[in-house]
Specification:
This is UPF0397 protein BPUM_3679. With about 180 residues, this protein is mainly alpha-helical. The protein has a single domain, classed as Arp2/3 complex 21 kDa subunit ARPC3, CATH 1.10.1760. Helices cover about 70% and strands about 5% of the residues. It has a two-stranded antiparallel sheet. A hairpin with a 6-residue loop joins strand 1 and strand 2. Helix 2 packs antiparallel against helix 3. It is globular.
Length: about 180
């Protein structure tokens, strides 16, 4: 049985999405005062791409984008790279329920989006990243849990505000299903 292949459109979206993730992560982030922890606008963009292209694209954009960003700075930090992929994956799972390409991103969908993104970020940054930091790098628990909590909270807020705004703006550019009517003479 042949596996489901990614469309050309999705593959291109992954490449462009990873590149934009890198640019935003490198040049449009705000230091928090906690070592190696910034407020990242790249996760709002990741959320948009995951919502538009689904979980596989979201996972790959987060993973590849974060990997390249780290590789061009201080070197790959695998625990956080993995979490970026997990966050993209989990947010992408709701793409079929949101259907923003149909032009509708009302309060129910905004609430669903933010519940899922907050849960994905919390799981990733409050639990997975710190545990992997301890397992992979033998980092001190108190340090990595503080970093994870700060990163998670800032990402939840950034995606909650900026992500919601850009997804809503995108949805407004799409025609609502059934919005056209036939003219009668």
């Amino acid at each position: 049985m042949a596996g489901k292949q990614l469309s050309t459109k999705t593959v291109v979206a992954i490449g462009i999405g990873a590149a934009v993730f890198v640019i935003l992560g490198r040049f449009v982030s705000i230091p928090t005062g906690i070592p190696n922890t910034q407020i990242e606008t790249s996760y709002a963009f990741l959320a948009l791409m995951a919502v538009l292209f689904g979980p596989v694209a979201g996972a790959l954009i987060g993973f590849i984008g974060h990997l390249i960003k780290d590789a061009t700075t201080f070197g790959p930090w695998w625990s956080w790279i993995i979490v970026s992929g997990v966050v993209g994956l989990l947010i992408g799972f709701i793409s079929n329920r949101l259907k923003v390409e149909e032009g509708d991103f009302g309060w129910k969908k905004i609430t669903l989006f933010n519940a899922v993104q907050a849960g994905a970020q919390a799981l990733g940054w409050f639990v997975i990243a710190p545990v992997l930091d301890i397992v992979i790098y033998a980092e001190p628990a108190n340090k990595v849990f503080v970093q994870g909590i700060v990163a998670g909270i800032s990402n939840i807020i950034t995606v909650g505000v900026l992500g919601t705004i850009i997804i809503a703006a995108y949805a407004k550019t799409r025609s609502k299903s059934g919005s056209l009517s036939k003219e009668t003479s």
